[in-house]
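re: ur question from earlier - yeah i can do the single chain one, its not a big deal. heres the input i used so u can compare w yours
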Amino acid sequence: MPGENLSRDEARERAALLSVDGYEVSLDLRSAVGDADGEPRTFRSVTTIRFRCNEPGATSFADLIAPSVTALSLNGRDLDPGAVFDGVRIQLEDLAAENELVVDARCAYSRTGEGMHRFVDPEDGEVYLYTQYEPADARRVFANFEQPDLKAPYRFEVRAPEGWTVWSNGAGTLTDGVWRFAETKPISTYITCVTAGPYHYVTDSYERVLEDGTKLEIPLGALCRKGLAPYFDADDIFLVTKQGLDFFHEYVDYPYPFGKYDQAFVPEYNLGAMENPGLVTFREEYIFRGKVTRASYESRANVILHEMAHMWFGDLVTMEWWDDLWLKESFADFMGAFALVGATRFTDGWITFANRRKAWAYRADQLPSTHPITADIRDLQDAKLNFDGITYAKGASVLKQLVAYVGQDAFLEGARRYFKRNAYGNTRLADLLSVLEETSGRDMASWSRSWLQTAGVNSLTPQVVLDVEGGRIAELTVLQDAAESYPELRPHRVVVGLYRMQDERLVRYERAEVDVDGPRTVVVELAGADAPELVLVNDDDLTYCKTRFDATSLDTLREHLGALTDPMARALCWSALWNMTRDALLPAPDFIDMVARFGRRETDIGVLQMLHAWADSALVNYSPPWWRKTGGEILADIALRDLRGAAAGSEQQLAWARFFASVASAPGDLALLRGLLDGTETIEGLAVDQELRWAFLEPLTSHGAVDEAVLAAELARDDTASGKRHQVRCLAARPSAAVKAQAWAQVVESDALSNALVEATIAGFQQPSQRELTAPYVEKYFAAIERVWEQRSIQIGMDVVRGLFPAYPTAEDAQSTLDATDAWLAAHEEAAPALRRLVLEARDDLARALHAQALANY
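and the output i got, formated as tokens:
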């Protein structure tokens, strides 16, 4: 893996030297089917690159990761592949002012989701291909200059097995057995793409009359594996797509520039989705094989709109280097939520953003690896790890704050000017700030320094002083603080809401929108207001901060959280309480108690499901070991109570059923799950479909209530790619030392498993209820991770290092596990920075858990 790295300095030097006029890429994928004769499967890739060099006679390099190169020529001169190609780079010497490089290579199909991924469907034996490149895996498929600022137009042609269809960025036609695709606009290497196979394909179209009177027509397509066709709700996907296109055309004022708009749902995908212009790729789990809640449809719609936002933020205008990754990801995260609320049926999308997306950001911003939104990205390994909660969710939160700061009209007008000035080009932070200064009249430099160029999250706490009678506010202040390691105090635009009980409802009766700056801000607007029972700083969720409570407010929430009527305010309070739990300010058993008492009153299904996840994490990570059994019984009891009490067939019933399965451990609870599977038990309205069956089987397996034969029978019932992933996870979850040893060997000592099955095996191996079984792997983990990082792809390396970290030590082993982590870090100061970052993050999570457990040890 280290030999595949590319530094920022190397990229800058190459960009200063070269400019690319165009690519012609010819791929022969007919080898994807048939017998491979025991050899690794490869395909032929022939690339012609036309480029200019502003220093004739200079030396540079092209990128290619391939088993072999058959032929190479530069400006008509044949080169010896053995002399100039080292498996990663092609050395280019004595460049002319205008150059033509032709590379004929054998490239490898992937099983890791990087490059040209090859998947064989166990259901029918069909083969499916797709590409995934970000940040730098196009070089696994064709020779190129793999960096975002060397944009160029592309022409692709593909030979594929008979009966297949092939898609790429541009529209394609099949002539004489060859798929030829229209030339693209100038784009970066990482968003080129090819998808090929016997996919199920549905079409539609989008039309809009633009302001100048011209008619815009965009062909729409959606595709998935044939085995998923019965579940493929393409109509809803097209509905959201059309709503999004309407929204972005109205607000962005720059017509969609990439012709067609296909969306491919592909197997074994590492990401949520990828914004390839003209052919967006998604993980196929967004096609729902069973009943799901509204939150799942909302999540899918949000991802569709996030990727659509990239057509402008990232594809049309692209960051120069990965330091400014936020210029596309933060904007897409914000604009996706903005469009979700403004254009679709999911009008409560900002609640999900506040409760779910920002939780991701708050966690990332408190890790030792936290970084400014505009990060210092030294190389490609850094870039890969910076697709994180800061770049996405914190950046989006800061943009939401920016809209409140400069005004929505000024923000959108700045975006329009930004696109028109930089179309098909590359930008830096300064390019965006300059147009926002023009449109808003605000000093964007100071805002940028505070919000984009510093790390860490601030906490805002209300302080209330009442008058002598105690009936009114004499003074209300907001106190701002920050961690010692990142002491920046930022300007915040916030709403401070005052709440009190009225007719058994906790309602807001006063609000003030104010600017908070510095360590102490007096909210003069609320002086003289009636004394509150709850003060909610950052009501309406305008800024990015951790909200704290004064003593009176916390007492009110302990007694009346379920009476809080406004769903956004309720979500913000839950989020604040969760942050307090993680920060060891609220004992985990107290948080679990509040979920037990008030969770059933949560009306927003996405918030409810987040509460389930947080309660489970509070139990397994932050509760003291001696209390976990009691806590588990409490959660199982309330889950079963609310499962039985929910309306028959409702999404709340489904959510409680899944939560019950995740916390069930007592013999009676496991017997109920077994009865629901075999039909001897029923709950009115609960349809136990195939996906729910697997959700019930995992806890049964991990607690030893079913054996391998039961899992084999279930796979026979669901002999699909999804079923295989579920079975592999359950197999690794069995409570046996031999099972754990086998799972470890399959992931760490072998590369035979695909990325999806590696992920499933790791998930089954790491069971919080099996701490004694995984305790022996602490030493093995630290002995293996550097070798894994060096020998495996970066995606698999990340999966192994993150997924197999000993996050669930026994009570006796907790401190020794932390000590072992510190010892490894001390002994490996020269290890790859990206590897050290992963270990540091895992160490921080464990230390935080132990700190919270100590608080709860009462």
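The first strand starts at residue 18 and ends at 28. not sure if urs matches, ping me
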